Each structure stands twice: as C-alpha cells, then as structure tokens.
Amino acid sequence: MRTLILLALAGLGAQLVDGSLGMAYGVTSTTLLLAVGANPAAASATVHLAEIGTTLASGVAHWRFGNVDWRVVVRIGLPGAVGAFAGATVLSTLSTEVAEPVTTVVLLALGLYVLVRFTFAGVPAGTLGKPLRKRFLTPLGLVAGFLDATGGGGWGPVGTPAILAGGRLEPRKVIGSVDTSEFLVAVAASLGFLFGLGSQGVNASWAAALLAGGLIAAPAAAWLVRRVPPRVLGSAVGGLIVLTNVRTLLRGEGPTVPDAVQWTVYGLLYAVWAAAVAHSVRAHLRAREPAPAAAEDAPAPDPQEAVR
Asked: Which stretches are transmembrane (predicted)?
C-alpha cells in the first residue's frame, strides 16, 4: 500500500510538471519504477499504460483552456505513434547506451538555446504565428516517439524544446499541443508493448496508482500554463531541460564524477536558472507598465518666438 501511495503522489507531481512545462512525466515515473525493482521494458510499459489516461485528461484540459494547436497535434502525433510502436516492439533487444549520451547533448544544447532566447529576447515576434512545417514535425515525431518508448520518457524533452526553439508557436500552445499529441504516442507504445511482451511484467496496480495521481493534476497544470507569462514559461522550460540533461550526463555510464562536484554543478545551475526566471519576470512586468503619457499641460509655443 505504501508503494501505491508513493506512486500516486509521484504521478500527481509528474503530471503537474509535465502538464505545465511539457515534459518529465515519463522520465519521473519510469525512474521511480526502476528504483522499486521493475525492469526497463516493464517500467516503460506500465508508465505508457498509465499515460493513456493522463494524456487524455491533460489534452482535454489543455483544449478547454485554449492551449492546443490541432495542426501540430496531428502532424507530430501520427508519426510519433509510429515511432513509439516501433520503439516498444524492439526495446527488449535494443541497446540505447550509445545513443543516450548523443541525445542528451543535443537536448542540453536545445535547452540552453531556449533558456537564453526566452530570458534575454522574450517571445520571438518575427516568426511567432507562422505555421510549423510538416517536414520538420514528421521526423521530430518519429524520433521523439521512438525515444519515448525505448527510454520510458522523451516525448516532451525532445518535442517541446525543438518546437520552442523554432519560435513559431507561443510556449503555452507548444506545451498543450505536445501534451495532447502524447495520447497517440501512449496508445501506440502500449500496443507495441502488448505485442512484444504481452502482459508480462506490467503491474496494473502501479499503472492505476500513477493514473490516479495524474488525473488529479491534469486540470491544474493546464490552468497554470495559461496563467504563466510566455517569457517566464520559456525560461522555466529551458532551465528544466538543462538541469535534466546535465544530471543525465553526470550520472551516465562514463567516468564517475565525485558527488561534491555534482552538487556544486547543480547548485550553480539552480542559481543560474533562478536568476533567469527572475529576469524574465522583471522584464514581463516592465513590458506591462503603461507608456508615460505625453504632457498635456505643456505651454503652447509662442507665435512671436516662431517668427523670430
């Protein structure tokens, strides 16, 4: 019972973060399942089974709050489903040890770009509102879906920063569209795991606990992402991407990094992240201040002075 309660709380927290920042549900939940003894394939299968319900609830909530661009959902979700099904069926034989560091470095670079761009430049005005190209979304969906199924998470960390970096869609709609399209990925991955594993190793009670927590958090997260200013949200997402991937690099399969060095790096990153978010908040508040009105009581020019 204690494990189920912890899983429900983890599902609630993970969905709150995922629904408001567009990532981290799968990574957080899968990490916890691995910690309690599940093997990677069973952990990913259990999380994706829970995600069928959480992503549906999250998508409905984001739609009701106006956070969804349905063209993006279709263009990234359908290829994402194909990639997820493929990833799920080959997970038992595929080694991601070589691919993981490369993916992490790419995500870290994207996270730094998003963090710097939104912190210092705000929401890009030149490209905002322009349609996202299918030739960009299709391969992005395939890769993100494949990584999501094979790693137990990755749809948000890959899809959200890549679309944010393009600057064509405001952050809340990026997050809402990525979250909504994840329903297709979760269904396809679950079918792939059913095809490849059957029900072997999938713990239905664990999936139900994760689902219960996620269902509670989904509406709150969709409301939150609509209320947070886009510039602040962009800085928050960028910082989360950087922190997540630096942690992956420091704790990867390479040379062991001493704990003291790791905590020093984390401390510096948290300080930079907090400063970036604070800067974005101040810039947003300054932008909302009304421009000073022209002085109405200024004396009219003297006609004689004009002649002189």
From this structure: 72-94, 106-128, 181-198, 204-225, 232-250, 262-281
